[in-house]
Q: What sequence folds into this?
């Protein structure tokens, strides 16, 4: 025990220890607690009113089993489920693959690449309503620009694109990809720019060509970021309403509806809000695991590579010196004794 501690009275020492324990627990007293409650109360009220209450009320509205029997008997629901699977599966994977390839293109140096990047961002910066409405009129079978240009150049009368289920669904998917592709390209471009150039230089010194640098350096270091982007975009695509509603309008005869738009039809067009809520809630068994896995992936897996990921990107027979790799010479080949014969 130190001299200072011996000089302190026993009661003073106990008071000091108690204060330190409370400080370690993060407890607030007096005016600090009042200010903390005053600052936190508006956020708690907003959370309860605009997050928790709508969720609980929606669960209550869709809690009747008879709603789901009515929903499953409706053939339009099965069509919407198939359309949603195609919309999300094709739209997300094609878009993320294109974003990854385009992020590599925009890594090139040159003023013209930067100019193309600025033009490329414009669809994402455009508001959704005029962007999707322009695509709707672009594909119009009678007055659309696409068929008019086709007629002027070839004399061929183009099809009525939005009067076919599969052409209309393809138009919705294409519009969704076109609108959101620039955003994910920028995200993956930022991920590529975060990779140290020394790794590429070291791989080039070891004789790796462009394809091997892609497979052994870029892909291992971009895997976590790519998976997180795919999961996040899947959540966005499941709830996307704008592309289907403003491009094809769900037609013809509601054959291109997805779950997000069909729920709105039930709630507002048919005036069955409880059925609309039940229809949207059928996506929760898919949406909740996706959100849980996304949060787990974001918290446990770092976007920046771990030591094991760096080790996988280093060619066999090399060692890492700082951030560079050096070829380790063969001990057997370099050893003089390996070439000696016994006397």
A:
């Amino acid at each position: 025990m130190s001299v200072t501690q011996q000089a302190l009275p026993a009661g003073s020492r106990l008071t000091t220890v108690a204060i330190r324990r409370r400080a370690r627990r993060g407890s607030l007293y007096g005016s600090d607690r009042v200010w903390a409650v005053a600052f936190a109360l508006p956020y708690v009220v907003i959370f309860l009113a605009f997050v928790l209450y709508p969720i609980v009320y929606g669960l209550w509205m869709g809690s009747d089993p008879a709603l789901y029997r009515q929903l499953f008997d409706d053939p339009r629901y099965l069509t919407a489920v198939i359309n949603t699977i195609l919309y999300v599966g094709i739209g997300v994977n094609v878009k993320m693959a294109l974003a990854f390839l385009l992020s590599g293109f925009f890594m090139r140096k040159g003023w013209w690449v930067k100019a193309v990047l600025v033009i490329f961002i414009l669809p994402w910066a455009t508001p959704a309503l005029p962007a999707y409405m322009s695509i709707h009129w672009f594909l119009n079978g009678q007055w659309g620009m696409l068929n008019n240009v086709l007629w002027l150049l070839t004399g061929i009368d183009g099809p009525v694109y939005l009067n076919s289920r599969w052409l209309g669904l393809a138009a919705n998917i294409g519009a969704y990809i076109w609108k959101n592709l620039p955003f994910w390209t920028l995200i993956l471009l930022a991920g590529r720019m975060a990779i140290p150039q020394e790794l590429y230089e070291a791989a080039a010194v070891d004789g790796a060509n462009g394809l091997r640098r892609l497979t052994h350096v870029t892909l291992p270091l971009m895997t976590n970021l790519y998976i997180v982007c795919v999961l996040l975009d899947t959540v966005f695509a499941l709830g996307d309403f704008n592309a289907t509603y403003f491009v094809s309008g769900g037609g013809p005869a509601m054959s291109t509806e997805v779950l997000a738009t069909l729920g709105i039809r039930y709630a507002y067009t048919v005036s069955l809000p409880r059925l609309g809520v039940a229809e949207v809630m059928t996506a929760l068994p898919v949406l909740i695991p996706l959100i849980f896995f996304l949060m787990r992936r974001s918290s446990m897996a770092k976007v920046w590579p771990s030591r094991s990921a760096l080790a996988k990107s280093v060619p066999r027979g090399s060692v890492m010196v700082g951030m560079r790799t050096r070829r380790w010479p063969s001990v057997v080949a370099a050893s003089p004794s390996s070439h000696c014969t016994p006397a």
Residues 302-311, 313-343 have pLDDT under 50 and may be disordered. DSSP finds 17 helices and two strands in the chain. The chain has two domains: 30-61, 66-314. The beta strands are 318-321, 324-327.
